[in-house]
Amino acid sequence: MSFKSPIIENKNPEPNKRQLLTIFFLFGGTLTFLIFLIFYLFNQLIYLVPLEVEEKIGNLIIEQIAPEKENSNISQQLNVLVDEIETLLPNKNNVKRNYEVIYVPENTVNALAIPGNKIVVYEGLLKELKSENELVMILGHEIGHFAHRDHLRSLGNMLLFKLIISSIIGDLDIFSSGVDLANVIVNTQYSQRQEMKADEFGLDILNKYYGHVGGAIAFFETLEKKENNSNKLSFFSSHPSPQNRIKNLRKIIEKKDYIESQPQELNILQD
């Protein structure tokens, strides 16, 4: 008499493609939400970062961008100008700071807001300016980034992103030195909203300084011509296209009824 073993049915059938897709999207959605939440909370807490921490980060960056500070007449004039601008700033903790301009004698056309109240201005940018008013506008713009802590927010978001990616792939060495921090700052591009807010801040400072906003748009018009001629400047790597910014500035000037008068000649390069 032969004996047949009973056939045991699989009560846990393999999931079909639809179930796998559902699980995948649930996991992906949850992960995306958690990452978004981390970035949101980080941006809410950015105003609590002590100035001492900012200064330490800034010193690491400055060591790479300008290892030897220029103490020339140009550097002194830039700092005198920013000191005068400081007297016009609103008396708030995140705005009223002791700003220092670091002048770098290189042909790079750019200006940068560095953590620790430092504003880097390159010689190449000064050569593109036609008036002192344009320079005040740019310095006011960079101070606007400090006022909204855009400089620290962008740096922190980039490092946080690198930390998340590094955690996923198992490499927690997100940066090895101040060189990496400097590269992040130099290549950071602010959002359109951040740039517009900083532009408005700079425009208000310009109006307070001269009593009018003459020269406010001239620098961006120069950049627009160079962009159209396909002359790529480093300014474009860390700032959006000037076209929309010009339109936005004109709207603000019209809305606030600012006066546009003849700008002053720029003599700061006569070292």
Question: What is the helix tally?
Answer: 11
Number of strands: 3
Nearest-integer average pLDDT: 76
End-to-end gap: 112 Å
Approximate strand percentage: 5-15%
- Number of individual domains: 1
Low-confidence stretches: none
State the strand order across the main sheet.
1-3-2
Multimeric state: single chain
Pairing-aware structural class of the strands and helices?
mainly alpha
Q: What overall geometry do the principal axes of the alpha carbons give?
A: globular
Radius of gyration: 25 Å
The main sheet comes to: 3 strands, mixed
Instruction: Sketch the topology as an H/E string, one letter per element.
Output: HHHEEEHHHHHHHH
Share of residues in helices:
55-70%
Blueprint of the fold:
Blueprint: H1 17-45, H2 51-65, H3 73-86, E1 100-104, E2 111-114, E3 118-122, H4 123-128, H5 132-147, H6 150-169, H7 178-187, H8 192-210, H9 218-228, H10 235-238, H11 242-255
Parallel strand pairs: 1-3
Antiparallel strand pairs: 2-3
Helix pairs in contact: 1-6, 2-7, 5-8, 8-11, 9-11
From the structure above, extract its key features:
271 residues, metalloendopeptidase activity, M48 family metalloprotease, transmembrane, 58% helix, globular, metal-binding, mainly alpha
